[in-house]
């Protein structure tokens, strides 16, 4: 039998849903977890930035808000509530709230050492000149769970999804995104994360990972650094479900060497996750749809992640397909 270590379920919340009305009570479905560890008042705290699944009928095209979670022990989780939604963001963009066109998908967050602020980044599909386009918005806060103030979007990144906001040891920030045929890296200006330093570059194409013998890059890039090497984790395009693969590089801009699959499908057609070190152990966060039985109502969970002697990610529990 499958056993999941969930973050948010069974956690029930009251939602206002265009489909079900005001005060509709539902499990809080979450997906696409981005995990970060911050030092808060001398304590290590793990924060989780996730997408929020809401409607089985409309699926991902209905996600328009976020919750943030935190833990100090990987057992007890705090839900910091609804921290951002399309209506809030629309106040900045001035666009009309129009469900179905204004999705907000997999977010991330990072800390900017130069101004001491946390930056929440989220891909928001909006209409520009009548055309749908994904923009990567930034919201800042003095605290890792908000309250957030939207400051606009990073103008110039190709219309892509799933931003991973990675800050290197020297404080330089990069955004990794997926779409338009591959994985993109965008370097940000040191003194202004709303602006790009140069152009976005494609790091991995859909067929870049030939070593595994399967179609490779699909979406959901996540970058972490361990022992001086950059690990790029992502969902592949394996049949109708996705597995998680990874590539490694000595330089952030590559070349990235494909290392293959480290997570088989985990009870959902999409996969998307993050790998993080917390209090001496490593964890991989991902999502499964087993709790709801519906691929558009996902739940975030995690497993401990181990590495072999060469620093390769060991395969996670293999529940098969
Ligand atoms: O959650 C919406 C989308 O589904 C994400 O952006 C993708 O990575 C996939 O998980």
Portion in strands: over 45%
Query: Could you report the average pLDDT, rounded to the nearest whole number?
Result: 86
Query: What oligomeric state is this?
Result: single chain
Spatial extent as radius of gyration:
18 Å
Biggest beta sheet summary:
5 strands, antiparallel
| H/E topology pattern | EEEEEEHEEEEEEEEEEEEEEEE
How many strand units? 22
Global outline: globular
Work out the helix count. Answer: 1
Distance between the termini: 13 Å
- Indicate the structural class: mainly beta
Present as ligands are:
beta-L-arabinofuranose
Structural key phrases:
single chain, 321 residues, binds beta-L-arabinofuranose, CBM6 domain-containing protein, four-stranded antiparallel beta sheet, mainly beta, 22 strands, five-stranded antiparallel beta sheet
Q: What does this molecule look like?
A:
Keywords: Carbohydrate metabolism, Glycosidase, Hydrolase, Polysaccharide degradation, Xylan degradation. Belongs to the glycosyl hydrolase 43 family. One of its GO terms (molecular function) is hydrolase activity, hydrolyzing O-glycosyl compounds. The structure is a single chain. The chain is an all-beta fold and 321 residues long. It is built from one helix and 22 strands. The strands form six sheets. Strands 11, 12, 13, 14 and 15 form a five-stranded antiparallel sheet that branches. A four-stranded antiparallel sheet has the order 3-4-5-6. The chain has a four-stranded antiparallel sheet with strand order 7-8-9-10, covered by helices on one side. A hairpin with a 5-residue loop joins strand 11 and strand 12. The chain is globular and about 50 Å long. Mean pLDDT is 86; it is low at 94-100 and 209-214. The structure holds beta-L-arabinofuranose. Beta-L-arabinofuranose (FUB) is lined by residues 31-32, 51, 60, 105-106, 161-162, 219-220, 270, 272.
């Amino acid at each position: 039998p499958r056993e999941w270590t969930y973050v948010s379920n069974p956690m029930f919340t009251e939602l206002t849903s265009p489909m079900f009305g005001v005060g509709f009570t539902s499990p809080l479905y979450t997906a696409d977890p981005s995990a970060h560890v911050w030092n808060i008042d001398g304590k290590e705290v793990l924060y989780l930035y996730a997408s929020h699944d809401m409607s089985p009928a409309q699926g991902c095209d209905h996600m328009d808000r976020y919750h943030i979670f935190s833990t100090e022990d990987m057992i007890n989780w705090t839900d910091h509530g609804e921290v951002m939604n399309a209506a809030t963001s629309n106040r900045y963009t001035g666009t009309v709230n129009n469900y179905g066109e204004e999705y907000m998908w997999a977010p991330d967050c990072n800390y900017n050492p130069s101004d001491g602020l946390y930056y929440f980044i989220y891909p928001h599909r909006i209409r520009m000149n009548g055309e749908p386009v994904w923009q990567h918005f930034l919201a800042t806060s003095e605290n890792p769970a908000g309250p957030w103030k939207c400051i606009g979007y990073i103008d110039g990144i190709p219309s892509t999804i799933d931003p991973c906001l990675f800050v290197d040891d020297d404080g330089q920030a990069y955004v990794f995104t997926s779409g338009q045929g591959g994985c993109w890296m965008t370097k940000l200006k040191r003194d202004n994360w709303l602006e790009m330093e140069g152009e976005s570059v494609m790091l991995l194409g859909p067929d870049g990972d030939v070593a595994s013998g399967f179609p490779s890059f699909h979406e959901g890039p996540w970058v972490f650094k361990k022992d001086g090497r950059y690990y790029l984790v992502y969902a592949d395009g394996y049949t109708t479900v996705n597995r998680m693969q990874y590539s490694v590089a000595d330089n952030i801009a590559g070349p990235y060497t494909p290392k293959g699959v480290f997570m088989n499908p985990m009870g959902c057609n999409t996969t998307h996750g993050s790998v993080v070190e917390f209090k001496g152990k490593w964890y991989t966060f991902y999502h499964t749809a087993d709790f709801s039985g519906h691929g558009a109502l996902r739940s975030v969970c995690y497993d401990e992640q181990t590495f072999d002697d060469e620093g390769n990610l060991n395969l996670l529990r293999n529940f098969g397909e």
